[in-house]
Amino acid sequence: MQHKRNSSSLCTPHEHALSRRVMLGTMAGGAASMAFGGLATPAVAEALRQKEKQVLFIWLDGGISQLESWDPKPNTSFGGPFRSVPTSVKGVHFCELMQRTAKHMDKLAVIRSLCTHDNAHSSGVARIQRGDPKNRGVVYPYLGSAFAKLLGPTSSKLPPYVWIKPGSGGFKAEHAGFLGPKYGALAFGDGQPPDNLLRHESISEEADTQRNELREAINRRYAVQRRKVSTEASTAVFDTAQQLMKRQDLFDATTFSAADIQRYGTHDLGRHTLIARKMLEAGVRFVNVTSYGWDTHGDHFNGSASLIPKFDQAFSAIIEDLHASGMLENVLVVAISEFGRTPRINGHIGRDHWPEAWSTVMAGCGIKRGIVSGSTNEQGTWVKDNPYDIGHVFHTMFKALGIDSIDTEYDNGGQPLPIAHEDMQSITEVLA
Is the entire prediction scored with pTM above 0.90? Predict the structure, then answer.
């Protein structure tokens, strides 16, 4: 990675001072410990002390409807059967399916004017999660891999990019694009650890240490005449496994209080978001929580009545907890899909793919609170003002975390490449 200007902006001096805000956040953490069943753990206190920037990326695969969430249009031709409800910010309303999150609008920034271009899942997922860079001659990294490269692991030495998802897990090297497999995603299928993570009982700790020393020596010899991008990925996988072996507690669901389990929800999204909270507390840099099943082409309103309250429950709980502990100062939270849903209701009582006018939400590190950016027209069919593409969102996320997205570049084997679309810039009105 190359920097055209000094990269000290990634860690400014004031971050190391014990400010009044940090002290208040730490005090809030003590209150959270009593209110939320021990949330303010030593790991949280350490995270507050370090003030290391982290990301929680909630991916709603298939496309959540903006009309049944962030940008309701009740009593219009395309508004659907649900009402809107007032939020904690005067004049801002959400769909009634989002009543819990509505109480936390004062901590959120909602962007209601996304206008992207791809309405297919197969290409839209990659386009949104890679930021649709202008240079398409190479395969760009997913956002999690980008942060793994740009910011690296935190002082916890835990893997910088983890993916909590339903189904199978494993290491997903393809997320890293041209950065190389070292920066791929470590996926925890159903929030479970990788297979065979525990050291076999027949192997002592001393023997395991000797084995790893031998492996490292062989790897160094092997790497002499091999491509660095391949050998460093192999080494990174073993190093990651060693760190995870020391943190079995990350996968111990019995450490969650009954109250927390009920607050987040016993459904997949609730359980996985609660695991994500623990990963953030432990110091993972970037946590992706994925929820599937949002592609509601048929029976959309019954589907929304089932899906969106689950998201509302989990999302409001994590925002509440991160705020109460003080971690929201350092954790950037983003909830997004590959596109929104059509205002027009189809013949199957469903909403189809709609990239032309939809919404996303951000909160936390570097983000202004209690603000709505952009708007759609009365019917919700088109963006009315301030249209933004995904490149603008990427610039905004980088900027919120202190990364100069204009003058910071990747080094792709001597080829300088922008980290975000060079014809776009950050959405300044949502930046703190």
Answer: no
